[in-house]
């Protein structure tokens, strides 16, 4: 059965809505649900279910406008037997022709799985469903499968053009959906939309009211037998501070018992373009405002030149009122289906013979819903041709410098979808677009939507939080550096004077050396100043050997014991030196020889160094080094030994660099004792080496 | 008043110097007390150390080192005024005491004294206190004054002096990051962490460098480590949320943003991030509610307006979006300039 032919051509948008499914030549299969196949082994519930099947079938046969009713009955029957292929097929078809394409796919798949032969067009319907949910690859697969499944060559030839169209739409759809346009498409809400169809939005001149066409029932409205939908009526909704007031139906003469649409408003707002569906396949009429009478004139035909028997559906008058663009099915002027025609107002105020607007704009398929922006530079219209991704898509074309319209561009996805989009307009400043579409989540089948362009893609902002400077931990009270000990002087300070021993007040300049008594190493030395004053700093509180040399004076040797001393106090110590006089004798302490020999033992060298330093400090002096023994042993041996020992000392001093002229040596044996030889201690003292100053 | 005090102190100390000549034993005693005090200070026995220094000053009230060391103890105790007083006195008595300038600067750093602390570190270094800390703090002052190049030099010097100076590596990493040397920055953070493994802030900041390098997985690991070391480090949680968002883990991201916010330091960026995520998850209305609250609380935060504008745009509120972007411009940011252009186009 050919649903399309039953609809006829007197309905404006009904054809538009279903044209994607009801292109001439294609027929919806009326698949029979057989009782024997439907009935399961269970008796309970069968008769109610079967009744529903019958009721559903009645509505299904009527087709457009009643598929929702058929669906509801079939759904009831499905509860009894969810696995009947024919039932599932019909449910799939109902969903496909109403709202939920995903459910359509589910049911059609189920039907096909149960029985691939359930209907000749099941693959086609599945392809349509996939196309409508943007599954283009699957849609292409099923379209091709459908084509291959057609047995008859005649059918293949008949349908190939149409299927080629669908396949092209899928290709376009893939391209367009790959790069969606950044828009928000907002349903205008329940102030405007109802569960019935709304379309054809038209703003008044100040954008303060929106006119639109609705197929909602009013009072005693009846359904139009052509499509089972209520007739078209004109509604108006005021726009106040960006929100629409609840829409109101216009009264006569605008709304009649037939289909009525407002399809255009002149820029001065004083001429309304109306569609009447009951006149010659649909006609455009005008009504003009009579300011004297304060009312609108009765609508009348715009011009016989512009009307045709084939029908006109919508119109748009340019702002200057000189050009009328309108949609016509005039076979003499169109390229196929409905096209945009143009007529101009001549100097006599008459409309010129209409022309086809452009072969670039119009196609062999239907065009509908023309709108031109107030600046006259942009043309919006709906077309099933060009690169539509299915049904009617919205296109735009720009006025070129040579006065022609450019090649139309698809507005893109998601403004356009594989379903129908028609009657695109903008507000007077072009900020927003408004159009009619079937979209998921709509209030009714076809709703009015607002298009908000969002501009270029923008990244939402995310921020990391960092603290690039750590700094030492708070609170900042701690110290950061390790304190260093002061370099304090902890030495033991010895101070005093070097003086002449006889007088006691003559200061002497002398070198005072403090030595380690064990090693003889000099640990510190100072030189007394002209006042005889010296200050020495000794590192430790221990025993030091003290040696003092001053020119003209005998050297001084002593021991300084600082054990137990405090470095908090200065230690005061004066030294008194003996002047060198001729004849002065000094016993050299700590001179040791090997027993019975004149070989100096190394422990003698420190003492000899002192003599050496004395001679260095007193270069003009001459000394006699003499050896002495006690009275034990022979005199001769003692004389020789004492002499040799004296000589050994002289040799040592000379070897150190002392001039031999400064030295003389003698051996006195026991002839010059200094103590008694009767005691061991006395004999020890007598065994000595001494020097005598013989000249200075 | 301060000049008068300084003058009087100078007079006093001069008189002291002339009339109060120390004996040998007094000077010895003073020095001994100082060193004892320092040893106690090193051991953390501050009370006894302070007593030594005070005793030292009873013997010699012109002894600058004692004032200095006592000042350090005041600082340790958080007695800033007393610390400053002693440091000032030390410097009157010994204007070449570099370390005293350093500690003065250290005390002043972090307060609002603009430049004074930087000058003090300059002086400290000039006077010979070439400690790594002196260069470190001078670097921080220079960063604050926009002299990143010179700050970098100082940090380099600080590191030369002390090669395990984790903080210096950390700050240098920050400067390198600002200069765009992300690899260098990352390396320095790593080095800081080698020397100081417990350093949650370094992990956080290193994670952010990884984010800039596109290593989101690595960033997450670093942020996780930061949080493990410091569970109250909200910024690390926030940042991990951001990284998780990039990795597509929306649930984890939201959890992190929530946890960061729950810590109590409601920083605008955290809320903004959460709002962005919500908008991405098709909850723009909730996102806007959040941002509305934050804008009330932080009316001068340009980023909030920027993002709210973007989310308003997503909901189709173009007028609201344009208003917000205009506000961004009014607040001195150019981030929304491109968007404002769109507002002005038909």
Topology record:
The complex is a heterodimer of chains A (696) and B (346).
Chain A: H1 3-7, H2 13-18, H3 35-38, H4 46-62, H5 67-80, H6 85-97, H7 101-114, H8 122-132, H9 136-149, H10 153-178, E1 183-187, E2 198-203, E3 209-214, E4 223-224, E5 229-230, E6 233-240, E7 243-244, E8 248-249, E9 260-265, E10 271-276, E11 283-290, E12 295-296, E13 300-301, E14 312-317, E15 323-328, E16 339-344, E17 355-356, E18 367-372, E19 378-383, E20 393-398, E21 409-410, E22 421-426, E23 432-437, E24 447-453, E25 492-500, E26 511-515, E27 522-527, E28 533-538, E29 543-550, E30 553-561, E31 571-572, E32 575-577, E33 585-587, H11 605-617, E34 622-628, H12 635-655, E35 663-667, H13 680-686, E36 688-695
Parallel strand pairs in A: 25-31, 25-32, 34-35
Antiparallel strand pairs in A: 1-24, 2-3, 3-6, 4-5, 6-7, 6-8, 9-10, 10-11, 11-12, 11-13, 14-15, 15-16, 16-17, 18-19, 19-20, 20-21, 22-23, 23-24, 25-28, 26-27, 26-29, 29-30, 33-36, 34-36
Helix pairs in contact in A: 4-5, 5-6, 6-7, 6-8, 7-8, 8-9, 9-10
Chain B: H1 2-19, H2 24-43, H3 46-59, H4 64-76, H5 80-93, H6 98-108, H7 116-126, H8 132-144, H9 148-161, H10 166-178, H11 182-195, H12 200-213, H13 216-229, H14 234-246, H15 250-262, H16 268-280, H17 284-297, H18 302-314, H19 318-330, H20 337-344
Helix pairs in contact in B: 2-3, 2-4, 3-4, 4-5, 5-6, 6-7, 7-8, 8-9, 9-10, 10-11, 11-12, 12-13, 12-14, 13-14, 14-15, 15-16, 16-17, 16-18, 17-18, 18-19, 19-20
